[in-house]
Amino acid sequence: MSFVDTLRQWDEGVTAFERQDLSEALKIFLSIEDPNSKIYFNMGCLQLLNQDLEAAEKAFDCSIGKDEHLAIAFFQRGITFYRKNRYEESLADFQKAFKALRGNQLIDYKALGLRYILYACEVLHNVALLEAQLGNWEKAQENLVKALNYKTDAKLSVIDRALQSILKQKLFKPVEFPTKLLFKPNKHYVAELEKKDYLGKAKVVSSVVPKDEFSGFAPLQPQVTSDLFLGEPHTVLFEFVPETSDELAVVPGNIVFVLQKGADNWASVVFNERRGLVPYNYLERLEISLASKKNAETPAAPTREPPSRPERIQEPTTDGLCVVKIHYTFNFAVSLPLGSPYDVLMAKISRKLNVPSAGITLRLTAETSAENVIDEKAEMEEVWRRASSGRLTLWCSVREVSDVHFVAIHPYESSNPEDLSFHEGDTITLLSRVNQDWLEGLCNGNIGIFPSSFVREVPVNGNLDTSD
């Protein structure tokens, strides 16, 4: 089978998968005579979705045989062994996946046609799970501590929860590859599969108005699309300024083609290669003749108001996300999962304003009364209940951050560049609260994050006595 044929079938298989026809996608992939490592990987993923673990194992074996450096294939075969309760082989594959990362924090497979990032900390997370599954709790903890050196902000909570489970000698769920992703062929190669018409198609370039006497800032333009033959020509009598993206701006004298007139008295028209809605009572049907009308009287103002605007269907939010609009000295918006805790919401706003969260006051309304203030004690369920159609509006103000200090009750040595090191007795100025276990602070001219269990807050005007 030629490379072109392989490429065409690969693209057809991915297309079938995207329309959720899994059996057809798998059938197409299996018909490819000499699949590469990525196509074998796609077969394995589809077999996993079908719960055919034996076939999935063989497909990932072939993928690794074609490319022994494909870390994501080792990762997926490790998941397959885990589901078959073959924990030692699963552990070995996750260790091989980590080795294939070659000390990097992550591998982004986007350049290879897979919109997925494999994180080293997630691979170590699964290594720790398998060690725990085999009863090696100390090794499991060592791997999770090692994962902290490779963590990113987005993956910090996953490692923290796993550590808490290991300390209680409880098992946890593995990190798994998403079920809706496959390797895709290079889009530039796929584009070359399409037949090209180098001559192009003829287009209409002459105006329907024999003599164009219009002068001004928006002269009549030739209609160059075939849509003009589908509608009736009309001339615009009055200027119309659109208020939504569905509507079309026109001025007196423009020639538009009405494709459809709705019962609500709005017309779908084409003008200058653009489609949009215009009130039909702003238009007048144009009788095309050999000569343009001369000395036409200026039309009177419309006899009635424009019709009510068509209802616009509100697009639902995806994946449970909520758009929170914040009124400040300027308005901005942040997006986060509906029902997120207070700390997550404040972290988003703090990052947007580049201001420590301790200096931000969040309110339900524009009024500055105490009952409208949202703080860490607020019932967030009540706040999120105010959201409508995935949207919520809040108000905020920024104040000078009051001096909140902590005194170190234990020394802390940083294991990562973003951590803050300090000695017992050092004073630390709070910059923000990352979560309930981690804080961000300033100490000895350095800024970083540190565990809250290593410090104690100093009351305002309090002393710095470090005695227990």
In a nutshell, what does this entry contain?
The chain is an alpha+beta fold and 468 residues long. It is built from twelve helices and 17 strands.
Fold blueprint:
Blueprint: H1 3-18, H2 22-30, H3 37-49, H4 53-66, H5 71-83, H6 87-100, E1 106-108, E2 117-119, H7 120-133, H8 137-148, H9 156-167, H10 187-193, E3 232-236, E4 255-261, E5 266-271, E6 274-279, E7 283-285, E8 321-327, E9 331-337, H11 342-353, E10 360-363, E11 373-374, H12 380-384, E12 391-398, E13 405-408, E14 427-433, E15 438-443, E16 446-451, E17 455-458
Parallel strand pairs: 8-12
Antiparallel strand pairs: 1-2, 3-4, 3-7, 4-5, 5-6, 8-9, 10-11, 10-12, 13-14, 13-17, 14-15, 15-16
InterPro entries: NCF2_NOXA1, SH3-like_dom_sf, SH3_domain, TPR-like_helical_dom_sf, TPR_rpt
Pfam family, one: SH3_9
Domain SH3: 229-288, 401-460
Rough shape? flat
Give the distance, in angstroms, between the N- and C-terminal Cα atoms: 77 Å
CATH topology of the largest domain: Serine Threonine Protein Phosphatase 5, Tetratricopeptide repeat
Q: Which strand order does the major sheet show?
A: 6-5-4-3-7
The biggest beta sheet reads:
5 strands, antiparallel
- Mean pLDDT across all amino acids: 81
Radius of gyration: 32 Å
Number of domains: 4
Instruction: Just name the CATH architecture of the largest domain.
Output: Alpha Horseshoe
Helix content: 25-40%
Helix/strand order: HHHHHHEEHHHHEEEEEEEHEEHEEEEEE
List its salient traits.
about 475 residues, alpha+beta, Serine Threonine Protein Phosphatase 5, Tetratricopeptide repeat, SH3 type barrels, Ubiquitin-like (UB roll), 4 domains, five-stranded antiparallel sheet, five-stranded mixed sheet, about 30% helix, about 20% strand
